[in-house]
């Protein structure tokens, strides 16, 4: 089972976007038959098989084995991946995105789409790649946003200056910074 399957064809998206198929797909995290899935969903094995067949045809589910039950060959299926990502290219950007500068939401959306596409390309590789993901939440005092952004820019420029040579392994660094809405736990 792959870690991520990048859904970049309309046929895949069409097969995936049926609530009943998503229910079936979730139950195929482990290898199972249509009979087993049908029992959980309180549906007939034939109805489940209809959805499984559509998911198999789209490459979202795989038949991993088969077994004989009362003289009938029963397929065992499993989801192709643990996670399914939709490519922004399925629809694409409608019109021109307004990108005023690197502090605009449009710039950040382009960056996120670029990173998502890069990660999708990495999934095609055969070897495990060392990656690093860092996420955290900072508190910037009122009126301190510009000072924070200046510090961040300076730190990154220093990092690029120290490691920005023309030789060696190429590593992409993408930094996203955006305001976080406060959650209200009532």
3D structure, described in words:
The chain is α+β, with helices and mostly antiparallel strands and 186 residues long. The protein has 2 domains: 2-85, Arc Repressor Mutant, subunit A, CATH 1.10.10; 93-163, no CATH class. Helix content is 40%, strand content 17%. It is built from 6 helices and 5 strands, in the order βααβααβββαα. The chain has helices spanning 10-16, 19-27, 34-41, 45-57, 105-122, 145-163, and strands at 2-7, 32-33, 61-69, 72-79, 81-86. It has a 3-stranded antiparallel sheet with strand order 2-4-3. A two-stranded parallel ribbon has the order 1-5.
Integer count of domains: 2
CATH architecture classification name of the largest domain: Orthogonal Bundle
Topology, number of strands? 5
Euclidean distance between termini CA atoms: 40 Å
Mean pLDDT across the residues is 85
Shape summary = elongated
Order of helices and strands: EHHEHHEEEHH
Rg over alpha carbons: 23 Å
Q: What do we call the CATH homologous superfamily of the largest domain?
A: Winged helix-like DNA-binding domain superfamily/Winged helix DNA-binding domain
Structural class by sheet pairing and helices: alpha+beta
Our count of helices gives 6
Give the CATH level 1 class of the largest domain: Mainly Alpha
How helical, in percent, are the residues? 25-40%
Unreliable stretches covering 5 or more consecutive residues: none
Mind describing the biggest β-sheet? 3 strands, antiparallel
Sequence of strands across the biggest β-sheet? 2-4-3
Fold-level CATH name of the largest domain: Arc Repressor Mutant, subunit A
Percentage beta strand: 15-25%
InterPro entries: ArsR-like_HTH (IPR011991), WH-like_DNA-bd_sf (IPR036388), WH_DNA-bd_sf (IPR036390)
Organism: Tenggerimyces flavus
Protein name: Helix-turn-helix domain-containing protein
Pfam families: HTH_20 (PF12840)
